[in-house]
Write a structure and sequence with these properties.
- Helix 5 crosses helix 7 and helix 5 runs antiparallel to helix 8.
- The protein has a 7-stranded mixed β-sheet with strand order 5-11-10-14-13-12-16. A 4-stranded mixed β-sheet has the order 2-1-3-4, with helices on both faces. A 3-stranded antiparallel β-sheet has the order 9-8-15, with no helix packed on it.
- The protein is globular and about 65 Å long.
- The chain has 2 domains: 217 residues, Glutathione S-transferase Yfyf (Class Pi), Chain A, domain 2, CATH 1.20.1050.130; 167 residues, PK beta-barrel domain-like (M1 Pyruvate Kinase, Domain 3).
- With 398 residues, the chain is an alpha+beta fold.
- Helix content is 46%, strand content 16%.
- The structure holds glutathione (GSH).
- Glutathione (GSH) binds next to helix 1 and helix 3.
Length: 398
């Protein structure tokens, strides 16, 4: 039987165990437990409803991240190799520090962003309820308000780790150990809830993250863009593009259909359907209300990446149209041939995928508060009237 890991994607403890399993090269099936439905987990464990839970190759059910990795390290040489004897004491000490002291700040930074990710209102409410029962009414909102202070505390806690990573590739030398997996668990949680805060971490830590992820297997979000531009390069590129650009045409320059995870087609035309968006796009299958179709300004896309890499953004329509709040309002309707789109309030911000594909500076450049009204990441629209649209068609305000 192949090992199974039950997790929530946002759980730092589950992501720690997952990273250890990947690092050890042990085959494993990852089961995403629905946050609001833990029947399978409760049945499996006899009543334990937290994650991570691991079912080992021989069918043993293990709970609690520390107990899980201890058992794997004790029983399996692939995991024992993650804790070389000479550094065993400091490695376990780092694991415990990451899961307690670092986690105590990191989960507060991540929680407001994790809460809003749940599509189901019950799951969102349950997540907040669990936190409020332990940390008091309004705690998640308070962490959101104090996000800058918490991020500063996080940076302070991570400063010694950054100093170590300036001196060597991984925490305990040339090879990643269980300590690196524990640190990664915290960053994986942060990346889901607060990708901007991850992008703002020390460059040494981001470089380590890239190195560490390379040890885990194929990149989780497909291939990255060929180049990651710096903040200065992004500013310069946008200024140059804007200065040289003729007046806006409203034309569609590229159509992208996300046919499967990390797979893109760039057809000459696509059909738009109400409630579905771009027909054949997997976003429609994910069923995001009010986010049928995602639209990006070609000038911004060109500032961030070469045209070959535009499909990596994952947006559907790349258009020669200003998308800023002063140019396009929520509720505005745009006709393209027979089809009509309405701009929705669904927020479009860069996430961990943009970070992985285009780099930390691109994420900061897109999401930074002062430039939010410019909507550099783009906008969402919903299809009001169906129709077929093609590259070269012009979006007209109606
Ligand atoms: N000590 C446990 C802690 C596990 C834990 O706190 N899991 C959280 C997710 S990070 C959980 O499942 N919480 C249940 C809930 O929020 O309802 C471990 O290290 O595995």
């Amino acid at each position: 039987m192949v090992m199974r890991l039950y997790r929530f994607p946002h759980s730092c403890y589950a992501r720690f165990v997952q990273a250890a399993i990947d690092l050890a090269g042990a085959p494993c099936t990852v089961v995403d437990v629905p946050f609001g439905d833990r029947d399978e987990l409760a049945t499996l464990t006899g009543g334990y409803v937290q994650v991570p839970v691991v079912v080992t190759d021989d069918g043993a059910v293990l709970t609690d991240s520390r107990r899980i990795v201890s058992a794997l390290v004790a029983d399996d040489p692939r995991f024992a190799a993650l804790v070389p004897a000479a550094d065993a004491g400091p490695i376990w000490a780092y694991v415990d520090w990451a899961g307690a002291i670092l986690e105590d700040v990191a989960f507060r930074v991540a929680s407001p962003g994790v809460a809003v990710r749940f599509a189901r209102p019950f799951e969102r409410a349950l997540f907040v309820f669990v936190k409020e029962r332990r940390y008091g009414a309004g705690c998640v909102d308070a962490w959101d308000r104090d996000a800058d202070g918490l991020a500063a505390r996080l940076a302070e806690l991570l400063a010694p780790t950054v100093a170590t990573l300036r001196a060597r590739p991984f925490l305990f030398g040339d090879q990643a150990t269980l300590a690196d997996a524990a640190l990664y668990g915290q960053l994986a949680m942060l990346e889901l809830g607060a990708p901007d805060r991850v992008a703002a971490l020390a460059p040494e830590l981001l470089a380590w993250k890239t190195r560490f992820e390379a040890r885990l297997g194929p990149p989780p979000y497909g291939r990255p863009a060929r180049a990651h531009r710096s903040l200065a390069a992004l500013d310069e590129a946008l200024a140059a593009i804007t200065a040289a650009a003729p007046p806006r045409t409203g034309a569609i320059e590229l159509l992208v259909v996300r046919t499967a995870m990390h797979e893109r087609a760039t057809p000459a035309s696509v059909a738009l359907a109400p409630g579905q968006g771009v027909v054949g796009d997997r976003w429609a299958i994910d069923g995001k209300a009010d986010a049928d179709v995602s639209i990006m300004d070609v000038r911004v896309a060109a500032a961030i990446a070469d045209r070959d890499d535009w499909p990596l953004f994952g947006d559907n329509l790349f258009v020669d149209l200003g998308l800023g709040e002063d140019e396009l309002r929520v509720g505005d309707r745009l006709a393209i041939g027979d089809a009509v789109l309405e701009i929705t309030a669904h927020p479009h911000l860069g996430c961990r995928k943009l970070l992985a594909r285009f780099g930390a500076d691109a994420l900061r450049w897109v999401n930074g508060k002062p430039q939010r009204p410019a909507r550099r990441r783009g906008v969402y629209g919903r299809v009001v009237t169906p129709g077929t649209i093609a590259v070269g068609d012009r979006l007209r305000r109606i």
